Recover the amino acids of this structure.
């Protein structure tokens, strides 16, 4: 998929992560896609809601291809954002890659995959693979890329 991804138009991805070290590791893991994605970063549930709603400082925010979401954020749980998204038709099928330490699978229609947050850069290979699959589905115009069941 990597060779094909470089030929698709740039797709915006939102990283919702409050830890700067994890933000950095995620960016490093996604360097292969630097021509294919535009990575936006916010550090709270509230900021993610503002971005998705294109309000406040994010009034010019573009429609996303995918969200990478840490479930443990300083202002609440990523589950709060998932529930908020599910109540809004325009976000209910937006693919979300979830980082969690919980082995219990989450039950939200828009979760493309659930990954354990890696402790080091080498563990981010799964993120790169899953994001590549999601980007390819988005580039093909898959209407419900999140429902393709990208198993982790």
């Amino acid at each position: 998929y990597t060779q094909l991804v470089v030929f698709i138009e740039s797709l915006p991805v939102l990283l919702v992560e409050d830890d700067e070290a994890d933000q950095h590791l995620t960016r490093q893991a996604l360097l292969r896609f630097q021509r294919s994605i535009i990575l936006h970063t916010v550090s709270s549930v509230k900021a993610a809601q503002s971005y998705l709603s294109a309000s406040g400082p994010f009034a010019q925010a573009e429609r996303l291809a995918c969200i990478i979401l840490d479930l443990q954020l300083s202002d609440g749980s990523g589950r709060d954002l998932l529930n908020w998204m599910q109540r809004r038709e325009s976000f209910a099928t937006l693919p979300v890659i979830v980082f969690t330490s919980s082995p219990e699978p989450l039950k939200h229609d828009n979760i493309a995959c659930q990954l354990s947050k890696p402790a080091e850069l080498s563990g981010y290979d799964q993120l790169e693979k899953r994001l590549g699959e999601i980007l390819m589905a988005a580039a093909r115009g898959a209407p419900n890329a999140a429902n393709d069941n990208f198993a982790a």
